[in-house]
Amino acid sequence: MLKALISVTSLAALVTAAAMSPADRTDLPVPPTKCEVAAMPSFASLPAIAKLPDPFLFMNGSRMKKKKDWTCRREEIARLAQEFQYGYKPLTPASATSGSFAEDKITVSVTDKGKTISFVCTVSYPKTGKKPFPAIIGMGASNLNNAELLNMGVAVISFPNSKVAEQMNAGSRGKGLFYEMYGADHSASATMAWAWGLSRLIDALEKTPEAGIDAGRLGVTGCSRNGKGALIAGAFDERIQLTIPQEPGAGGAASWRISDAQKVAGKNVQTLSQIVGENVWFRENFRQFGQASDKLPFDQHMIAALCAPRALLFIENTSVDWLSPVSAFITAHAAHQVWQALGVPDKMGFSQIGGHNHCAMPDSQLPELKAYVRKFLIGGSKEDTRVMKSDANLALNRGEWVDWSVPVLK
């Protein structure tokens, strides 16, 4: 391991230099621990890794032996992801946020760095069940079957992500409420800024009981570009119990390495080299991997795994080539190995069904959606949530992209 080490409890100095107690730091990918994370390598020092990197392999070359080792390995992956792909999420203290509620709207106000920003989130309430309700937060909006969610007694909250960080085009970098507070040159990409903003919404929900939302039973979803953001929000806030990215494509369910291979094979899929010029969903220096995705020390299977051992369900579509269905299928199976190793394989699922438009939730995917919501958000359900399916008759050739074994963890 590299000699220059930092602990997560000192990470704030690298991100916001804010002094805060562990109780304030609720939006870390894992709670504060004594884990040590090696100093980040330079791009030039990164080796080329042709296949999907081993999620169980520490930066010092040792492999996980116990389930509890995942806590520190997750911290490593989270730091690498922020360093090279997403930018850093400010460790804003919970005390910086306040909330107010009126007319089915939650106003979130954040004061930090001598500045105050505010945004409004609209809540749709179910007509069944009783307060406080579990809730699904829609990144921008929820494209799931919201009528079914409401019928199940789950509230639906719309989070205005594009106000927090714009995503019009490549010229949107540094624009939006987040950057008004932390500066246009902050490393955080739009998706990480959204994750920060969604964490502030959760802070506000915890302080605003009159909103009638159970802040201990929250899920997040989003479709397409907003699905990329939903994944990052779930990965970087432990308070989110269920993450449901819907057709997030490249930088979501699809791994960069596999999508590059699909492109070479003649498939019309989105790749890393294309996406960095399209919009600001990733940090500025991510473009250095445009022609070198194999130098990434992680890939999307490891980003998905940051949600483990909490629940994650990918809702996918085989009818949109741009999403790289093959890449998403292989990536999901690689990610699932983490939940398997941790002894909770039923908490990560993948449902890939075509025959419908992008972001249109078909009835054929309702059973898995409802099962995950009942079991991991509403609570009390014991139904089977083991789903890893595709209607594209895809075959999983493990050796093609995975050359590591799944450890038996004590």
Overall geometric form: globular
CATH superfamily membership, which one? Alpha/Beta hydrolase fold, catalytic domain
Low-confidence stretches: 1-26
Largest sheet: 10 strands, mixed
The secondary-structure element order is: EHEHEEEEHEHHHEHEHHHEHEHEH
How many beta-strand runs?
Answer: 12
Query: Average pLDDT, to the nearest integer?
Result: 92
Adjacency order of strands in the biggest sheet = 3-4-5-7-6-8-9-10-11-12
Secondary-structure class: alpha/beta
Distance between the termini: 23 Å
CA-based gyration radius? 20 Å
How much β-strand is present in the residues? 15-25%
Under CATH, the topology is which? Answer: Rossmann fold
The portion of residues assigned to helices is 25-40%
Question: What keyword list fits this structure?
Answer:
410 residues, alpha/beta, Rossmann fold, ten-stranded mixed sheet, two-stranded antiparallel ribbon, 13 helices, 30% helix, 18% strand, disordered N terminus
Explain this structure.
This protein has 410 residues and is α/β, with parallel strands linked by helices. The protein has a single domain, classed as Alpha/Beta hydrolase fold, catalytic domain (Rossmann fold), CATH 3.40.50. 30% of the residues lie in helices and 18% in strands. It is built from 13 helices and 12 strands. It has helices spanning 12-15, 69-86, 146-151, 161-164, 177-182, 190-207, 225-235, 256-264, 272-278, 300-305, 325-341, 366-378, 398-401; strands spanning 5-7, 36-38, 97-102, 105-112, 115-124, 133-139, 155-159, 213-223, 240-246, 311-316, 348-352, 388-390. The protein has a 10-stranded mixed β-sheet with strand order 3-4-5-7-6-8-9-10-11-12, with helices on both faces. Strands 1-2 form a two-stranded antiparallel sheet. Strand 3 and strand 4 form a beta hairpin. Helix 6 (190-207) packs across helix 7 (225-235) and helix 8 (256-264) packs antiparallel against helix 11. The longest helix is centred in the N-terminal third of the chain and has 18 residues, at 69-86. It is globular. The two termini are 23 Å apart.
